[in-house]
């Protein structure tokens, strides 16, 4: 079972509500690891939704599908790296993230970045996750 190690930094930055995350997550030995590539909210037909909410929802659905293919779920996520193009999209993104991570315990470690661009100009969000399961 994973264990959270919090020193108080996450609580100062936003480690509560739907933006909940841990300062560190310890994973016991003898586990399988999954590293998901950067995953945008792009439809499988190649089209890209227009809004941050639609893209974030789709990116999380892709992440869940990747986890499921490995026999894992959201409770197995150790760390989430989140990249947004527009800082003003943070609140909307966090609401979507909260629907997927909810009250997962321990909350995964996280990194949140606002970047100048992603793989295509109209992609607004991209996610990477690291997961582990015994």
TrEMBL record:
Transmembrane domains' residue ranges: none
SUPFAM superfamilies: YjgF-like
InterPro entries: RutC-like_sf, YjgF/YER057c/UK114
Family to which this protein belongs: Belongs to the RutC family.
Name the record gives this protein: Translation initiation inhibitor
């Amino acid at each position: 079972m994973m264990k959270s190690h919090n020193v108080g930094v996450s609580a100062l930055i936003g480690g509560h509500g739907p933006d909940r995350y841990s300062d560190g997550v310890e994973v016991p030995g003898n586990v399988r690891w999954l590293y998901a590539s950067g995953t945008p909210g792009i439809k499988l037909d190649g089209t890209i939704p227009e809004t941050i909410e639609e893209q974030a929802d789709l990116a999380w659905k892709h992440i869940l599908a990747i986890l499921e293919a490995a026999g894992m779920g959201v409770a197995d996520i150790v760390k989430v790296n989140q990249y947004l193009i527009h800082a003003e999209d943070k609140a909307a993104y966090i609401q979507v993230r909260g629907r997927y991570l909810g009250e997962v315990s321990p909350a995964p470690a996280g990194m949140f970045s606002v970047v100048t661009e992603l793989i295509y100009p109209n992609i607004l969000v991209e996610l990477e996750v690291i997961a582990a399961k015994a």
